[in-house]
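Standup notes
- HV: blocked on the assembly model, inputs below
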Amino acid sequence: MFQQLAFYSLATLAIVAGLFVISGKNPISCAIALVVTLGSVAGLFVLLDAHFIATIQILVYAGAIMVLFVFVIMLLNLHPDEMGPPQISPLKMVGCALAGAGSILLMLKFVKVGGQFPAVPPEYGTIEAVSIKLFTDYLIPFEVISILLTTAVVGAVVVGKRDL
Amino acid sequence: MDYIDVLILLIKAVFVLAFLLQLLPLLIWGERKGAAYIQDRPGPNRADIFGIRLAGMVHTLTDVVKLLFKEDLTPKQVYQPFYKLAPMISMTVALITFIVVPFADDLVIAGKTIPLQMAQLNSGMLYVLAIGSLGVYGIMLAGWSSNNKYALIGGIRASAQMVSYEIPMSLAVAVMFLYFGSAQLDVIVRGQGANPLGWGFFSIPGFIAFIMFATASFAETNRLPFDLPEGESELVAGYHVEYSAVKFAMFFMAEYVNMIVAAGIIVTLFFGGYQIPFLSTTTLTSHAPLITKVAFLGGAAGMAALVVVAIRKYRPGHFGDSRDLEPLVVAGLLVGGALASVGLALIPDYTNPTMASIAGALLQFSIFTAKVLFFCWVFIWVRWTLPRFRYDQLMRLGWNYMLPIGFVNLFIAGVHVVLFPNGILNRLGLL
Amino acid sequence: MVSINQYLVLSAILFTLGVSGVLIRRNAIIVLMCIELMLNAVNLTFVAFARQHGQLDGHVVVFFVMAVAAAEAAVGLALVMALFRHKATVNLDQANLLKG
């Protein structure tokens, strides 16, 4: 009962904040709305017993990536969108509606099991369990990710430099 | 969860809030008096309540009253929603960081074990880092919404500084994760044990991690020498230049609460948290009658000595007004405290395991508070001793010096843990 | 009782919101933010399925997705800053030098 209440309130918050993201006039309003969305998704992760991933979501997404976004918006000193209302052509509307309907149908048809979640041991989703998985089965992707992050850092510095 | 658990949780929540908010006036007074004595001047000593001056503690109360009753104006050019939201974010984030810190070892009341930590999260210290990184938003939104060039520069500098110093902080914390094998703060404190040789700072990587974490906390809480975002002589108060009255009070309080939280985390990770040197929890609970008598009677004796000092300071007719009675009032309060101490020493029956557990928890909590206050004093001391860093020096320190040292430190700690896998002495490199 | 269907529908809705944002908005930074929204919807799906099967592979994949999202956000914002330096605007409709 508490689970249902928590799920529906977090889901509503995520969807409302998502609507603010795509329709906010001020770029910083969109950024803060996205932080709220990320926070509610982190709450949903906690409901799904994924404690490590929830903390990492707040730490990485809401605490670092979005800070970077807000920092860039402040640095570029973007004013509220002076480009007028977004020109939403009918083609785009149809496209978005089709995307929405298609994804929801796909989700509903795909999963045949509708019952409750199975019970999981208390070590599910803890740091120890996820890290054991990460360093045994997924060791090679882990090393590749570190190379990817290094490449991204170098790339960002090079692209963002004022004069090469 | 039956409703006793909910009640205990609520009591713990109230307790954490009370702890943070009650240490706040003490710290503000300590900052002012400490600053004054470091700068060789007497400091605030004028405000009084019916003649009781309390060496300047009343000034904090007058500050609060002034800030509450000041006109809460909102300038026209600010962006209203974020202008009002920013101090709330700062204060909330500062307050909720403290819920994972253990105040004392588990309390055993009538067979029921109550952990004295408000939330036993599995990702304990990661939660602290995550919530700490959310604190940047308060400052950035304050700087941006003020629609003021200086505030914007202050906000940008603050966010860059706080994000840059999160990395050395995380590397220092990772060293502690390696040594204690868990991210949960109560496991870390228990692993440190009562012997000070086992505390976090007493190994080379641990000591370097302590220095790095302390420096990074100065940067995270925007205290001098890293207080460029609110630099008073450079940026006209930086990101909170457009704030007045209660909103400014929230920023002001949030800074001190962040300081208490940073000191609390330093104490928990590196200095044994609530552990009393050489007295482990089992020692405390098994020898409870003797230890509590010694502690409380010793406290009573100390207060009695202070009563004698206070009475000797009583000079009738020196000031000619009600200030003369102040030593007597202080002496009266101390006599009350001494009698309460003696009462606590003699009346309860400490052979009962519940009372023994409560007494042990009280003693551990007091030493935790003493350690936290000591580190807050170190924060205040450094603030009034060191000059401010310039912005490029700050960035260079964080990225060019602390980051490589952090990585090398983590590597050494990793090698250390692999070579000597067990026990306290392994962290010293012995056996 | 909350079953996996609700989580999947929620992530479908969030994904749709992200796609609509990318199609409708013309501000480059907001488009990048909507991409992050899409990635979050996908993360939610992964974690929901991982919980359904009681395994942790989903969590590990989410970890990697977050790392990739961080890298992509950094490079994307560097690109936006370079664009802003050249054209003094972040409107994507005006970034059309290569248009035929």
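- HV (later): unblocked. The two ends of chain A are 59 Å apart (CA to CA). Chain A has six helices and no strands.
- Next: hand off to the docking folks.
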